[in-house]
Task: structure prediction
Amino acid sequence: MTGLMNIHLGLLYLDAPLPLVALLTGAAAIATTLYGYMRCLRRKVRIGRRLLTGLRLATIILVMLTLLHPMWRGEREFTQKPDIAVILDTSRSMNEPAAENQSRYQQAVSIIKNSSGNMRRKGSKSQLHIFDLEGRSLNLDELPASPQAVVSPISTALFNTRNALGDRSLAGIVLLSDGREVSGDQQAFDPSTLGIPVYPILIDDAGSQPDQRSDLSVYAAIANRDCLVDNAVRVTVLLANANGSDRYPIELRLLDGGYPVARKMIRWTPGEVDRTEEIMFIPRKAGTHSLRVHARYVDQQGNPIPGYDPDPSNNWASFTLHARRERLTVMYVDGVLRWEGKFIRDALDRDQDVNLISAIRLAPPEHAPPSDGLFTASQLANIDVVFIGDVEADYFTPIELVELRRWVLDSGGGILMTGGYSNFRESSFGQSPLAAALPVTFMDGDASQIEEPFNIRLTQDGYRHPVFSVTGDPAKDRAIWQSLPRMPGCSRIASIKPGARILAVNPQAADSSYPQGLPIIVEHQVGSGRVMVLALDSTWLWRTYVGGYTGESAFYDKFWGQVVRYLAGDPEPRQQVELLTGTERPAYEPGDEVQVMFSLRDTESAADADEANWTFSATATHDEGGTREMNIVAVGSNRYRATLTPDRPGNWNVQIKALPRLTERAGQLSSSVTVPVTHPDMELANSRTDIRNLERIAQSTGGRILTPAELEQWRKGRETVTVKQAAVTGIWHHPAWISLILMLLCAEWILRRLWRLA
Result:
């Protein structure tokens, strides 16, 4: 504290209310004094009676005020050096090595002690307040010997420190941390609302560079399950980068059965967190291809950079693809121009394996001519799938609808009917010749449409259905379908025909008939063909959403591509039974029980295959070597679970094999899935300094990042501040107050003696 202290006098007030007894006693004392001095002493002392009266009255008043505790409220101001708050990161990640053969924590403690010693030597009156990440005040001489906290809620610690210091004048908060923020309660605070500048100190010079290590990951690989031989396949890869490092180029590879078939070099844009890339693949032979997308950091010569990616287990994504020899022909028919039809046609136009034919009625229904032979036997012979949009059944002649039904039942055609106000009515297609091929029945009236928004929910059959397999990973697919935008409404389906499968529901429209939700996507195998109804007309809202990634239509394109391929069936020879494999979670930790679920499916009917004719085996192989046999148990009809308890992080490749019991059946089936096993401790999962988080905290609060050498210079430059403090003084026990009362009493007594008064 420097300079003079100035006290500004304020207001005198009483600390206690004035009771009636005190008023009466004071009034009686004043009246007696006035009577005695002004009347009884009138003849004896004419000159000094007023003086004696005043002295006695003043004494009475002061005594009364003394008994009532008068207080003097004022204000004082003084100048001082502002205090400095220090937050010491006591989490276990601070045990990581730093420069000069010290840990980060040891270096942080040295910085605190050096700064405190400089303040004492230079005679600074400011104080150093030290806190840990839990908001507890630390004694400089009794700092913890080592960091032990299992979490590091840095943002919470900033607010706790500010609240603990109350009204103290702070020059700023010095943050000694590696920036790795792991919150146990997940409570988030915005540092920009702190109101105090924060100055992070770069503790680890070697590890504080923003591009020292960077966690690259492949979130998903999106491509249609079926393609055309000798035709380019577009594989959309969703990449993520933990700190947006652009130090090394990234090699994106596509491997078919372990052999590279496509390669692409990319440069990460600094500051990007995620991005979308495409890699092209041209299958040269028909059949099923097991593909894997791999991303890795390489040098200029294309050699991998060992150790730069701290978690290479998440750099893979697997999917299967079936190559066919002929393109699919789709006819899209709609009765009105609408967004749904536009974006469906755009998605199919972008599909290189699809030949699209569109027929849109442009005139109003009352003035439009009939379709006039749109669905004839000769026309349908060249069509694989028919899309029917919002158009009345009366637009087609009865002969056309009979031919369309025969084409589905006898020729194996596929039909999709999307939701609309005209087609989803009992009086429309519900009473047409095509009604016998549909998997649902319709209703009429206002109840045929639901205008309330809802979130689509897939059923268990829907999650297993190939149409909804977007990434090839069941856990990621489930996350995507559970987080899509809300639909503004749907068409109401009256009932489901026997044998039809409900793939998705509207859970907000549940009733006694459908307690899980109103069916909105239903399909069935009828005759030789497949028919699906989709009671939605706003799926175009999905086109810019891919599991949280926006601005990319790969998810939307793949969904409609898979709808077409499923409804068309597969004219190419393929195994009649396939093995479906997947995990319940996208990643695991050492010691977790990994559950790999698998089942057999008949590719012709998409129904469960007869598992009684097969035996199963499961093995898990680690990337760095080592194979384990997995235990297999049945968990339901044609549902099996293979379990593994990994003891180390890395990629575990799980291979499921199905062997036929009878020699005359097809050969063995196999399917594999990669299980990434990450480090169990989030506090220690990433050991590098998070320079980006430290920069974010500093910039949002008005501070800046300092080196240990800059800390002392910053502290010296802190200007003094003027502090105003309220001052309240109790006058009743003040020496001057008592002295004044005694002086008045003595003055009156002396005068009375001099004037010879009793």
The two ends are 57 Å apart (CA to CA).
